[in-house]
Predict the structure.
Amino acid sequence: MTRIVADISISLDGFVTGPDPGPDSGLGTGGEALHTWAFSDDPEDRRILGEATARSGAVVLGRRLFDVVDGPGGWDETTGYGAREAGTPAFVVVTGAPPASLRLTGLDWTFVTTGLADAVAAARERAGAASAASGSDLDVVLMGGGATIGSALEAGLVDVLSVHLAPVVLGAGTPLFTGGTRHTLVQRGSVATTTATHLTYDVR
């Protein structure tokens, strides 16, 4: 069964980027500290990252995050989605219009201009095909940014929320939660390492 998993790193004060993020500034001032765990040699951090990326049949991201990862300081052969862990899944971008050009031409990109629900549906189809090919159940992962994950929660599109709580207070940036509908979560996992506390919730 394909699950929709929202997976994101967040600061102690609730931000998923630092101030002033963008294609030329990445995750903003101090924002890289949110992802220290993903580059850690701690065995539990490696296990969590490896298991998550191995289960990724397709990945959904918003246009602003796409512009960061495809920007000049974005992903490369050593820094990317599970770059040291697994093969690359299909990527589905929610956008008003496809980009005029791509830097990361070696990845499988689909650009959906008809909204988040259609992007998730397209990713579910890609993940289903990948599951059939691999013989195992693979997930659709919503990797962000914060507005994309917040909108998906509001629309009832998320089955699992996976939060990597970084030991940093950013003071400002892009918040993950900005109000809206109350959600009941069921905690399914909590693992603390030296670089993050990894929390997993089922979303009701």
